[in-house]
Amino acid sequence: VQLQASGGGLVQAGGSLRLSCAASGFTFDTSSMAWFRQAPGKEREFVSAITRIGQTYYEDSVAGRFTITRNNDESAVYLQMNDLKPEDTAVYYCASPPLTFSVDDYAAASSLRNYAVWGRGTLVTVSS
Question: Which pLDDT tens digit goes with each residue over 84-124?
């Protein structure tokens, strides 16, 4: 089971980036997927999640600016990030819960302990 995030980089405030996460080794289309981020000196926090049927969840500070999508044919999940702010600077990780776990609400989607597989992360730096 492997997740590989990519697409990070340096961008000015107000700019956009699109993160990708390629999945392999499990039945992707039956699994929820999520993005978390960890800023320097801070704990890892929830950003967004998408269930196997396309229900989406967003942390309040990114709602309206970020969009999560998935492509089951490509076993990939994406995070389109618009209007980026310096406080979005972090390493972004994609994650997947165990296949037996059902993401039924925001609480389930946003809890780190519900995720079993993590990618290596991709760094997003937003300059002011």
Answer: 999 999 999 999 998 778 888 999 999 999 999 999 999 99
- Cβ distance 53 to 113 under 8 Å? no
Report the Cα–Cα distance between both ends of the chain, in Å, rounded.
Answer: 37
Of the candidates 25, 24, 31, the one whose C-alpha atom is nearest the C-alpha of residue 98 is 31
Task: Give the separation between CA 106 and CA 71, rounded to whole angstroms.
Answer: 22
Q: How many helices (H) and strands (E) does the chain have?
A: 1, 11
- 27 vs 106: which has the higher pLDDT: 106
Closest CA to 84 of 62, 102, 106, 52: 62
**Rounded Cα distance, 28 and 4, in Å:** 13
DSSP states along 94-118? EEE--TT----SHHHHH-GGG--EE
Tokens linked to 36? 């978390």
In Å, the largest CA–CA distance within the chain is: 42
